[in-house]
Every structure is written in structure tokens, then in C-alpha cells.
Amino acid sequence: xxxxxxxxxxxxxxxYPGFIKSDDALKVENQEDALxxxxxxxxxxxxxxxxxxxxxxxxxxxxxxxxxxxxxxNGVKHLDFIGSVGPALLGLNNPYVIEKVKKYLDEHLxxxxxxxxxxxxxxxxxxxxxxxxxxxRTVICCGGAxxxxxxxxxxxxxxxxxxxxxxxxLSTMNSFHGKTQATVNLGGKDKWRMYQGEPLPGYCHIPYxxxxxxxxxxxxxDIIAFFCEPxxxxxxxxxPPEDYLPKMRELCTKYDVYFxxxxxxxxxxxxxxxxxxxxYGDLARPDALxxxxxxxxxxxxxxxxxxxxELYMAAYGSDETAFFHTATYQDNQLSGICxxxxxxxxxxxxxxxxIRRNAPYFWDGLKRLKEKYPGVIKDVRxxxxxxxxxxGQNKNGDYYTVEVCKHMSVVGHVSTMFTINNDAVCxxxxxxxxxREDFDWALGALDNACAYxx
Length: 454
Known about the structure:
Layout: H1 12-15, H2 22-26, H3 31-44, H4 47-55, E1 64-66, E2 69-71, E3 77-80, H5 95-106, H6 119-131, E4 137-141, H7 144-162, E5 168-172, H8 181-186, E6 203-206, H9 211-218, E7 223-228, H10 244-254, E8 258-262, E9 288-291, E10 303-307, H11 309-316, H12 333-348, H13 351-372, E11 377-383, E12 386-391, H14 401-410, E13 414-415, E14 417-418, E15 425-428, H15 436-453
Parallel strand pairs: 3-13, 5-6, 5-7, 7-8, 8-9
Antiparallel strand pairs: 1-2, 2-3, 4-10, 9-10, 11-12, 12-15, 14-15
Helix pairs in contact: 3-4, 5-12, 6-12, 7-11, 9-10, 13-15, 14-15
């Protein structure tokens, strides 16, 4: 069966002069078209965010994208080393994932009905349980902040039903878990709670990497869960001490606290492991984790939570609470097939192994530049393809971050990005398709930018 030709009763552009038709929005062929997109975004969307992107040379229109590259309206080829701030780890327009999404759409299957059985999200959840058997329950959603909201709600319901007397959530200073009302309170940065009045009650923060401070809070007996990023992303690509996550796992078990990891940025293969906590073997297994970004292949919004059987059933294991967390798009089939295809690609292309093999070449080059420009590059840190460069300050006391990012973008045609939580740090997120030549391209652009700002 196919849709009959619909009867076109009106022309939208005639009804509303200036109305932009879909085909016209997709047609960006010259600089004039790009400037129109810029002007419309400045006028109708967040003009200050757009202006900030334009100021560092990042605000452009990509007319084509493939693998590690994108092209602007002038035909200039750019190296994408930020990956949409995480989602594009599998490359821009990954053909394998696109093929599966197109196949789903070509079959004309129902996508959004929340009461139908969902073969794609069910299969994806099954696959996740094979790969991460200690977290066999999956909740699908549409992004990282929503995933962390979902996990927060889960542990609170579970604690209310099974852990009476526990009422606080513990997380770390300088952390970032999203920008919804609850996640900015979970996060450890006062900046994102500005202009909202009093912080929500029930959240407390301790220094990242300090397990002794965490234990002092847990001793009080009222902590429901501890939330932590395996590597802080927005906070500045901060890697914890080697014993930190294993020790936090021990403390959470000792004090009956749910150990929850935010794997939105660091997870989904970015650090060279499917999940960043697997770097520690079995020593840092969480009771739940949130995921998003790279599991979407930068195509369709995907996020979710993996949870232990005990935690999930404590929250939703009854007729009474089964409907306490549902949403129209929660198990939508389009996100499901996209996530399935992304996961298949990760496994069959050995994305984690590729990152572990290829990352050292890039890291060696970054360390050489740190030695060459000690006044500009203060530190290089991270793991795998999650790289943070901390910059020093110029004679005016300003960090070199924006200057370097802008030069790399405008002159070197390499896309990177500063971190919002830490003005001193630039993030570099290569993707699976990056070659040694691409690493050399990025290192050369960074070399030139450092020389320029001195």
C-alpha cells in the first residue's frame, strides 16, 4: 500500500508570504544562502549562542559531510574534531547506520505509538543486556539530560519504596549532567543554577576524585545514590585518580548507596571501551548508567539508562509504579533502529579497539606540542578520543582557549570547541574514521595556532 497523492488545497508560501518550503531550506548552494540561515537563526533562535559560535569561526553551514570531514558552501574541506560535541564518534553520516534507518522508514512501520510492541527498542535492550549483563534493564529516551532525569527519578522511587530514611543525592563539584531543572541541581556548577532562586533540596556535592569526602557524606546514612562522570566532560576533561571509581564502588556497596555513572560523554566507545568504567575491569561496575550522544550516531536523538535488576524492580516492579515513568517518544522505533545500528557498527568495526590502537599517535603529538609551547599549553589530559587541552593565560590574564580554537577553525579548518564549564579547556573529540594524516592535520593546525597567539 502507498499513500495516494494528497489534494493540495493551498500553497503555504501564498498563505504566509516569506514562508520557507522544506526543499528550499535544504538547498544551500552559495554564501547568500548560508547568510540567510545565519540571519534567521540570529533572529528567531538563541542569538547569543549563535554569535558566540560565529566569533570562533564555528558558525557555518555544512553542505556536505562524510566520515571525519565536512564542506562549507565555498567548497572548503574541514576536519571535524569535535563531533557535534560527542554524538558523531562513528563519523559524520555513517553509511551503515543511515542504511538501517532508511530501511526502517522504507518499510513504513509505525514509529511512535507508545502502546504498541516495539521490536527495535526491545531488541536493542536485549543486545545491551548481552554486552552489559550486570545492567539488564533498559529505558530508552531522547538525550543525555533526559537520561539523567530518568535515572534520578528511578533511584528516588526505588529508595522511597525500599530504603526508608534516605533522601539525598550525592554528586561531584564541577560536574555536568544536563540543563533541565533537576540535572542542573545534580550538576556541580553553580553557574547553571543562577536566576532560579533557591536550589532544589536534596542535592549535595563533594570534590571530584575525593572518595574520603564522599564517605563522610555517606556515613550520615541518608544518601540515596552517588552520581559521577567517569571522566568529567564539560568540567574540563578531568580524569580521576586511578583508584577513585573502584573505591566509590566499594563505598556505595558498604553504605547501601546506588552507584550511578553518567556515561553520556565518556561512554559509547569514546575512551576505547564500550563503557568508560570498563577501563577498570570489574572494579567499577555501576548499579545504573546513563548514555546518549555517540549511541545516536549523530542522526536521531537517542539516550537511555541501563539499570540493575534490583534497582529497576525496586522502582518499577509493580502494577502501581509501572506507569510512573512513561513518555510518548520513550520507546520510539526510529531511535531504536538507530541505536541498534550504531551498536552493531561499534562491535563489528571494533570501534573501541580502533581507538585504543590509534589514539597513542595523536597523544604523542599533543605532548610534543605541550613541550614546545609550555606557556600556551598547560596540560593535555583525557583518555582515548576524549581529549582536553588546558591553556595558559596571556599577558592580559585571558586564557588562550578561544584564540587557539578560532585560529584552528578559521585558518586550519579544524573544528574543536572550548568547554562551557571551564574557560581554560578546549575539547578535541576525533571520530572513528580519523587517519594518521588527519591527526597530522590537527596537530599542524594546533602548532600554527599556538605560534600565532604568542
